[in-house]
Here is the input.
Amino acid sequence: MPRQFATARKPSPRSSVSRFYRVAKTQPGNWASRRSAARRGVDRDEVDRPLLSGASRSADPVAQPQRGTWRSWVWPPGVVAMLGAMAVFSHQGDLRQPPTTAGTGGRAASSAPSRPASPSPAAPRRTVPPVAAAPTELSAEQVYRKARSATVTVMTPTGTGSGVFVNSSGLLLTNEHVVEQFPVVRIKTSTGSRVLARVVRVDEESDLAVLRVARMPDAATCLAIGREPVQRGQTVYALGSPLQIEQVFTQGIVSAYSPEAILHTAAIAPGNSGGPLMNDRGHIVGINRAVLRRYDSMAVAVPTSAIRQMEIPASCRD
Here is the structure.
C-alpha cells in the first residue's frame, strides 16, 4: 500500500459506490483530486506530482483528503439508493393484500375510525286491529251437553212435540202445528220439571210458534240462533222427543237448503217437530218440521231466515 494511504480514513461499508468514490478521490492525478484542487486554487501539476520519499502527508494539501470534500460527490448516489429502497419497500407494502372483513363481500376494511351510529328515530307504532278468534268446533257429545238443558218436550191434549229456549227471559220456539189452537200448553224440561207456557205468536206460513213461560225453570238454559250461512255437507245435529222418548240426539249433514227450507239427513220422527237443528258450534240453524214421506232418511227444517222474521227480542248469547 502506498504511503499516502497510510493515514487515510477507513471507507464506510455503507455501499460499494461510496467506497469507490472515496478511494478515487485520494488517488494522485485522478479527476476527482484535480477538480478538488482546482476548487481550492492549487496548481494542477502539484496534484499530478508524486510525493517525495519521507515527505510528510500532512504537508501536502492535496494528498491529505479534506473532511467534507468527498461527501459533496458521494451523496447523490446515496440519496438515489435510499430513494430506490424506499420505493421498493413502499411498493411491497402496496402489494400486500389488505385485510378483509366478514360480511363486506371481500372489500378492505376502512382504516378510518368508525363513527358511532346515530340513534335512528323510533318508527311509529301501528295499531293492529284485534283478530277475531276462529270459531271453535264442538264434538257431538259437547253439542248434546250444551243443548239438552235448553230443549223441552211440549205436551198438548192431542199429542207431544219438542221445543227450545231461545231467550233467557223465558221465550221458546216450536212448530205451529204442535200447539195447534191451544193458547196454553205444558212443557217438560230435561230435569223433569213441568211448567205452563203461553202461546204469544204464531206464523202458519213458516210453521213457527213463540211460547213464553212465567219464569225460567231451574237448570234450564237457552241456545243462540246461528248467523253462519248453511252449507251443503255441513254436519248438523237434531235433538227432541220422538215417539214419546225424551232427549233423542241424532247426527246428519245438510243435503240442500233454501230460504224456505233445509233438507238434512239427521234422523227424526213424529215428536221431533219443534226441536232444534244445530251446527257444530251448538247454534240453532233451523227448527225441525217434518219427514219426507218418499224419503224416510230425509227431513225438513225451518231455516233461521224465517226465525228472524218472528222478531224475537234479545236472543240468547253464546
